[in-house]
Each structure stands twice: as C-alpha cells, then as structure tokens.
C-alpha cells in the first residue's frame, strides 16, 4: 500500500511539472512569484523525489541535499538552499544537468523534484599526450619532437556500483612508460563521512630532466642505456567529510626512485645522499574548503587548500624534509556574464636543498605565471598571485540527439569567456644557482588576454596571448582552468 501511494505521489508530481512549468527552478522562480498573488511565507516539504538516476544510488545524491522532509522553510531561504544543493549535486561530476523543482501542492505544502541527466561513467580512454609541461614547452623548447608523445590506454569508471566510487587502470607507452591503478571509495560508513582511496603507480623513462639552466629544463638521454629512471609509488588516503564543504585528508605513502649512475655526470646533486636510489615513506595532512559553483570552471564561491607533508618518517629513509602548501581562490560573480577570479598559491620546503625529484617552482603544476610558460623557476619558496577578469561572450549548445543514440552525449554545450589576466609572483632560491639568477629571487609578472572554451563534461581549453616582465610575448594554448 505504501508503494502504491508513493507511485501516485510521484505520478502527480510529474503531472504538475508538465502542467505547471512556472514552478521550475531556477529558470521560472520569478515567473512563479508573478503568477501567484501571494508567495507563502513558509512551506514544508512533504516528499523529495529523485528521477533520472538510473545508476547512481539515491543516498549518494541525498548526501548533497541540505533540505529535509517535514521541516518548514522560509520561502526565500528555500530558494537559496535549493540553489546551493543544485551546485553540490552537479559538483559530484556524475551528471550533465541538475534541476530541482519545488511544486506547491497546498497552501504551505510542497513536493521537491530532483531531475538529473547522468553522464557516461565507463570511459575507455585513449592516451595521447605530451610528456612536457605544456604545449608551448614542446613546441618551442623541444622543437616539436614527436618522440616525446605518450600513447596508450586507460579504463576509467567514475561511478562504480552507482556509489561515486572511482576506478582507473591504465597503461602507457612512448616517452614515459606507465602502469597505474587507482580506486577511490568516498564513503565507507552509513553516515557518509569517512572514505578511503588507494593508488599504485610505476613508470620508467629513457630521457629525463636532470637540472635547469637559464630557467629552462635540461634533458639527458644515454643511447647506451634503455632506462635512466624507474619510479614506484603507492599511497593510501583517508578522507573525513564532516560538513558539506569541508574535507580532511590523511595520506600515507611510499616512494622509490632509481636512476642510472650516468645521471650524476650531468647533475652530481640529482640526489643528495650519495646513492642512485631514493627511497622514503611519507605522511601528509591536508584540509580543503570547497564552495565553488563549478569545480571544473568556477565563477562564484571560494576554495582553500592547506597541506603539510613529511618526507621521511622512518630512520632508514633517504630524505628528511617537510613541505607546506597553501592555495586560496576567490570567485566574485558580478552578473551572469561578468566575474573576477583571484588565486593565491604558496609553497615552501623547510630544508635548505631537495633532491631534484622534489624540486618545486614556477612552471611546475600548479604554480605558473602567464608569459613564463617556457620557463621553470626553481626554489624552496614559491609565491604566486593569479587574477582574471572574465566576460561570457556566449553560452549555447547543440542538440545532436538525432545523430547520437546515447543520451549522455546528446547535447553539446559551449561557453566562451573573454579573459583579461594579470599574474605575479616570486621564487626564493636559497642556493642562488648562478645559471638561474635571471628569474629567481626577483619580482615577476605577466599579463595578457585570452579566450576560455568550456564544453562537454566540463572540458576546458584556454587560448592566451601573454607578455611577461621581461617584455617577452607569446601565444599559448592550455587545457584545464588556471584556478
């Protein structure tokens, strides 16, 4: 009998959604208030219905919904919470579209309809990418060398069992040979607060960066040796999500890097402990506050990442050092078409020198300054402040359902933003390496204009022309949002 009434309620709800489109959120909230002579001061949610989740479990979606059945809400508060819940569900990156529709069924009674369009979760990936830091590095510094291309295959499942679990298995050949396995389970408890993830990676390289000179990477290849570097890494991560926007991570890991002894002829300080094998355990803690409207390309909200990592926790480890990282981004939306983004990044090692495999600086992800894409600026402390004013030129999509039988790919969205950018920063190199003093230990900046394209499955392509503080200008193509 209970199932019968639930079916009747859902049928009625869908009927109302068709006949009363003015109640749909968010497009028609304004028209709703215009049509109603009076908007209820308070409403109570009788039921929350979810449709479109053919694979995703209901509890994974409900974890992101702050609204509850049987509770009275002020109307304005309800609309605000609906918008926040909609963003949280979308940021699971499991759905192409999310709509939350409140439907009045009485004077102060509403039913809540959550309508979803799922993404394609099992994706066989063809790996075809460059081994270099960015396209400009490959095109200019490496003379478009096709031997530096990586190729292979990867199986990615982004929603194992409909529980938002991630599985990635991949094999790569080419410039860097890689085998990787990753499994992530966001929740291991009923209250959905605790999660676990494990990763194993093994890779080999015949050509490796051994140092930097004049703020450019220097690569070395020994024709007599098949492999110059081997790396094995394994990590186990525990996650605690106490509230909607706050995450805590504890990571324990193991890393072993072995190099051919000929590498020391190019850089005697590649490792600092006297052997050609660097082996250590690590332990790290990080905190993330993430309240962005879209984690792939945000236009509103804020992001804060703090991290502290200890390299070498056993007496036998080959390194003893500690690293602190900070990343803080703020997104200001002034209107639907115009927003401003500002991001501050800071990284520091406590030790005086680090093995080359742990070198940080501008040019290494995630720290960069526009206009310096061709450079690496290495040191123990890195401070970068990035800024972008963005104007949305257009937002449209193409319905290809007549040609594409899969609903997950039936609509191709396109958003294009014009950006005006200004980045600046500083790298402190305690060792003051003479070959790199042109850019280390001094104030740096870069500025320019760009076009950002955001498309299907939140893919981002950036086309930018930038000029740096040395008055060097160039055109750069990048993937992924800079913030």
TrEMBL record:
Leader sequence residues: 1-24
Domain POTRA as annotated: residue spans: 43-119
Cross-referenced InterPro entries: Bac_surfAg_D15, BamA/TamA_POTRA, D15-like, POTRA
Chief subcellular location: membrane
UniProt-listed PROSITE patterns: POTRA
Alphabetized UniProt keyword annotations: Membrane, Signal, Transmembrane, Transmembrane beta strand
Pfam families per UniProt: Omp85, POTRA
Subcellular location(s) per record: Membrane
Domain of life assignment: Bacteria
Name of the molecule in the record: BamA/TamA family outer membrane protein
Classification of source organism: Bacteria, Pseudomonadati, Bacteroidota, Cytophagia, Cytophagales
């Amino acid at each position: 009998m209970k199932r019968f009434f639930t079916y009747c309620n859902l049928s009625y709800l869908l009927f109302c959604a068709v006949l009363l489109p003015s109640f749909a959120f968010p497009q028609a909230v304004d028209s709703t208030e215009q049509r109603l002579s009076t908007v209820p001061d308070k409403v109570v949610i009788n039921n929350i219905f979810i449709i479109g989740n053919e694979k995703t479990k209901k509890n994974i979606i409900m974890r992101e919904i702050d609204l509850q059945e049987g509770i009275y809400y002020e109307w304005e508060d309800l609309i605000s919470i609906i918008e926040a819940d909609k963003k949280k569900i979308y940021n699971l990156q499991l759905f192409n579209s999310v709509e939350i529709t409140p439907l009045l069924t009485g004077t102060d009674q509403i039913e809540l309809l959550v309508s979803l369009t799922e993404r394609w979760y099992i994706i066989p990936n063809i790996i075809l990418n460059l081994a270099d830091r960015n396209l400009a590095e490959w095109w200019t510094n490496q003379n478009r060398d096709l031997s530096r291309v990586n190729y292979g295959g990867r199986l990615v499942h982004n929603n194992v069992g409909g529980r938002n679990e991630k599985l990635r298995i991949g094999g790569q050949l080419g410039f860097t040979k890689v085998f990787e396995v990753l499994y992530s389970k966001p929740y291991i408890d009923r209250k959905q607060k605790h999660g676990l993830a494990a990763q194993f990676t093994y890779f080999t390289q015949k050509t490796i960066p051994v140092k930097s000179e004049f703020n450019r990477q220097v690569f070395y290849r020994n024709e007599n040796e098949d492999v110059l570097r081997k790396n094995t890494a394994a990590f186990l991560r525990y996650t605690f999500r106490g509230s909607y926007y706050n995450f805590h991570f504890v990571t324990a890991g193991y890393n072993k890097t072995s190099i051919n002894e000929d590498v020391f002829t190019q850089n005697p300080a590649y490792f600092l402990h006297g052997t050609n094998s660097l082996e250590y355990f690590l332990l790290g803690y990080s905190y993330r506050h993430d309240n962005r409207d879209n984690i792939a390309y945000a236009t509103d909200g804020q992001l804060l990442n703090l991290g502290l990592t200890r390299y070498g926790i056993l007496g036998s480890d080959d390194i003893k050092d500690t690293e602190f990282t900070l990343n803080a981004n703020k997104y200001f939306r002034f209107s639907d078409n115009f927003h401003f983004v500002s991001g501050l990044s800071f990284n520091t090692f406590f030790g005086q020198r680090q093995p080359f495999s742990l070198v940080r600086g501008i040019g290494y992800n995630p720290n960069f300054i526009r206009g310096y894409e061709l450079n690496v600026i290495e040191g123990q402390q890195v401070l970068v402040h990035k800024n972008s004013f963005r104007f949305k030129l257009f937002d449209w999509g193409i319905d290809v359902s007549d040609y594409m039988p899969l609903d997950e790919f039936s609509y191709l969205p396109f958003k294009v933003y014009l950006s005006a950018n200004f980045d600046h920063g500083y790298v402190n190199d305690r060792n003051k390496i003479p070959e790199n003093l042109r850019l280390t230990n001094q104030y740096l900046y870069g500025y320019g204009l760009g076009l950002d394209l955001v498309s299907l499955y939140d893919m981002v392509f950036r086309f930018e022309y930038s000029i740096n503080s040395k008055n060097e200008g160039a055109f750069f193509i990048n993937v992924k949002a800079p913030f």
